[in-house]
Amino acid sequence: MPKKVTVDELKEKAKELRINIVKTTNYAKSGHVGGSLSCADSLTALYFKYLNVDPADPDKMDRDRFILSKGHVALAYVPTLAMAGFVPMDSLKSFNHFESCYGIHPDSNKIKGCDASTGSLGHGLPMGVGMALGLRYQGYNDAKVVVLMGDGEQNEGSVWEGAMAGAHYKLENLIAIVDRNKLMIDGPTEDVLGIDPIDKKYEAFGWEVITCNGNDMEEVDKALAKAWANKSGKPFCIIAQTEKGYGVKRFQSKVEWHYGAIDSVMLEEAIADIKSL
Amino acid sequence: MAEGTAWNVYDALKMTSREIYGKVLAELGETNDKIVGVTADLAKSTNIGNFGEAFPERLFNVGIAEQNMMGVAAGLAKTGLIPFASTFAIFACLRGGEQVRTDIAYQNLPVKIIATHGGLSFGASGTTHHATEDIAIMRSMANMTVVVPADGFETAKAVRACVDIPGPFYMRVGRGFEPPLHDSEDFEFEIGKAITLKEGSDLTVIACGVCALQALDAAKVLESEHGISVRVINMHTIKPLDEEVVKKAVLDTRRILTVEEHSTIGGLGDAVASVIAESGKGCAFTKLGIPDEYSEIGPPEDLYAKYKIDATGIEETVLELMGREIEEDEDWSDED
């Protein structure tokens, strides 16, 4: 059952998360800041309203599962887990450091509340299919499995192996979110290897699909509400249309800010941008 | 083809007496509801289908999609289940290899990969279906246990034993037509503990899989016809390797031959070689296996003969190794 949280409260949380993302980029010396900022609204809505997870009982069997299939944005994920109470806020300062629990890609055996080690793209949806099958087989019928993927990630063939299996096994407890920020390392997705029409592709694979503005909390909230209420007998896919680097003018829609390092001056500038959102 | 020899792919399975894996798994499923299965359109060929017939709701066939199969297995394990994942060995180690490494081994999940048609056992299928790299790949993955049983009886025991291993497990079996090494299930089998099939003092042959029986047959001939006392070790667990057995062989026999249905790079032979080298003792040593080239097409028995991993090839190689000069202890122990 989603928590009773208002859209305005979620918007404030999303700002806080974005600030924590840029701060952590600074602590970490570098990171995937563009793709972290683009999916911050989805992460906020999931962790502060929708996901049934509890830092006091992180392994409870009937919990919802979340897989960060675009594992390179641990920079957004670990601060989310910190804000949700799974790991200490202060521990973010160790990000990327020698023998830290946190690196560029998350390790489920080192991070409390992290359901899957990810980083190699195209692995999350298959694991999500397995979790959804496993939960259903064991009778945890209310537990959802959410897989957050990148848009460039859709190039990976294993995504579509998982998509086929999700539909075949009628996994209505499975939710995929595609963070459609339109840029990958080498350029725009449609120049490097086009994925459009991505919504039609998921539909053709047998999924329920909706598209929303993934940087508009009201739309994200509505999309997740539909996903949570899904009783179609099909898995549910949200195409979250986002902007890479959203919230920080210097990074917005700039392919070169897929990955980078920010100093204290840029950090202050980024925080000011985010506060004015 | 002679009258009465016509058969199809399903009949072939019934013809073998070694389709034990699927049956044992079905038996285990009766008492352990955490056991589930995953396959990639090879439920019948790998015999995991026997489990699926007993528990249709517990076998997930993901179609011809081995990457997904391994990812799904990892996801199932993440919900507290013990998934058995079965496909041909070559697809398990390479097509789904990164998922095995990153989703299963790195996360240290109790996925039991039972890979069939290992080595050259699917001989006529050709090199695309031979698996001569799987042991090297799997043993290099941290957390992974690697077992190559010598026959169906060992397979049955390993399937039962692997359920209690907390982490990932890789077992490579053949096609099911291999002659059995043991004549019953009445023997001790422990993962990580080699079985001494025959004592000997002149040379030790360390073998795994189908080669264990070949080594034993060769040892008998070598003893009766050449008076050579050959110790035969069935090293069914490649990782963790029973290092004590290897060290003892170095000290007792000073000549070691390894035999495996696998590349001579990275498999049993190299695992044994590391132990010998680290022992600091002199030892005449040779590896038999598939040389650094792609395997030929043909019936497995012909291929085993070509690569000298059958009894005849082992005999020849032992005779060569017995004639090799090695430094005695006295010659090098005073150098340090």
Verbal overview:
By secondary structure, chain A is α/β, with parallel strands linked by helices. Chain A contains 10 helices and 7 strands. Chain A has one domain (7-275): Thiamin diphosphate (ThDP)-binding fold, Pyr/PP domains (Rossmann fold). Chain A has a 5-stranded parallel sheet, sandwiched between helices. Chain A has a two-stranded antiparallel ribbon with strand order 4-5. Chain A is globular and about 50 Å long. The model of chain A has no long low-confidence stretch (mean pLDDT 97). Chain B is of the alpha/beta class. Chain B has 2 domains: 11-172, 3-Layer(aba) Sandwich (Rossmann fold), CATH 3.40.50; 195-324, Rossmann fold, CATH 3.40.50. Chain B contains 15 helices and 12 strands. In chain B, helix 10 packs across helix 14 (311-322). Chains A and B meet through helix 5 and helix 6 of A and helix 5 and helix 7 of B.
CATH fold-level assignment of the largest domain in chain B: Rossmann fold
3D shape of chain A = globular
Q: In what order do the strands lie side by side in the largest sheet of chain A?
A: 1-2-3-7-6
Low-confidence stretches of chain B: 7-18, 332-336
TL;DR?
The complex is a heterodimer of chains A (277) and B (336). Chain A has 277 residues and is of the alpha/beta class.
Topology:
The complex is a heterodimer of chains A (277) and B (336).
Chain A: H1 7-28, H2 33-38, H3 40-50, E1 65-68, H4 74-83, H5 124-137, E2 145-150, H6 157-168, E3 174-180, E4 183-184, E5 187-188, H7 189-192, H8 198-204, E6 208-213, H9 217-228, E7 236-241, H10 264-275
Parallel strand pairs in A: 1-2, 2-3, 3-7, 6-7
Antiparallel strand pairs in A: 4-5
Helix pairs in contact in A: 1-3, 1-4, 1-10, 3-4, 3-9, 5-6
Chain B: H1 9-15, H2 20-31, E1 35-39, H3 43-46, H4 49-54, E2 59-61, H5 66-78, E3 82-88, H6 89-95, H7 97-105, E4 112-116, H8 134-139, E5 145-147, H9 152-162, E6 169-172, E7 195-198, E8 203-207, H10 211-226, E9 230-234, E10 237-239, H11 243-253, E11 255-263, H12 268-279, E12 284-290, H13 300-306, H14 311-322, H15 329-333
Parallel strand pairs in B: 1-2, 1-3, 3-4, 4-6, 5-6, 8-9, 8-11, 11-12
Antiparallel strand pairs in B: 5-10, 7-9
Helix pairs in contact in B: 2-9, 5-7, 10-14, 11-12
